Amino acid sequence: xxxxxxxxxQRANLRYIRASMREPLLERETxxxxxxxxxxxxxxxxxxxxxxxxxRLVVSTASRFRNYGLPVGDLVQEGNIGLLQAAAKFxxxxxxxxxxxxxxxxRSAIQDYILRNWSIVRTGTTAAQKxxxxxxxxxxxxxxxTPSGRMNDKGRNWIATELRVKYAEVESxxxxxxxxxxxxxxxxxxxxxxxxxxxxxxTRPTPEDIVSEQLDHDVGIHWLNEALxxxxxxxxxxxxxxxxxxxxxxxxxxxxxxxxxKERVRQLEHRALSKMxxxxxxxxxxxxxxxxxx
Length: 294
What we know:
Number of helices: 13
Number of domains: 3
CATH class of the largest domain: Mainly Alpha
Helix content: 55-70%
Distance between the termini: 59 Å
Largest sheet: none
Shape: elongated
């Protein structure tokens, strides 16, 4: 999808870009001094001077991503957020130029914004997909391919090797980039009354399946309750705490609670299950489907 700024927005963007380019560059010592003042004293004036000097870096980085169909003004705004994040985390004692450090934050902020807004479908959720999204067109150009055409297996294998990703990921991203977003409400063809959503399969259970499943569940609960009535209170306690809880008690825990050994609990459980199986077998052909020995 592509966005077109209105004339007023375009003029505002142009003024901002010109103002950014007029900001004087900082000497190394000046840059470090401003960073120290902001880091150690929270001097906001020092922060503003440091950030303004590198808004040109934001504009330059944003311009390299202008072909993704998003407003340059929005890319610049996201880049400025990255610039502020860099200023907040910059450590002048490491003796690295702020521009070098900030470049990574600016580029990352812009790329994340593009991935979030390039399509209504989330793109680039893994590191490999992100790498492919921002490099596939460039590498295809090196192969002499046009973005609208399909690559052959040799080209996909070469790109997979260059970017150290799987062949299937290259193929998937190629398909993703070659197709734009389409509304499911759109007609399948000109003049057609059918929309794409009319052909989507409904995988939900049918009303008959829902009713049948509920009846089976109710009958199974009834058989289970009837079988429990055949047990002694101690056997019921063992079955309820061992078999009818999401996190059942251990043999050792029940042994301490009942004052018997865990081996005795195991024997009682086995006997109780046998009684229940005999009771349920009078109603169901395969009682093992409901109760299984430990």
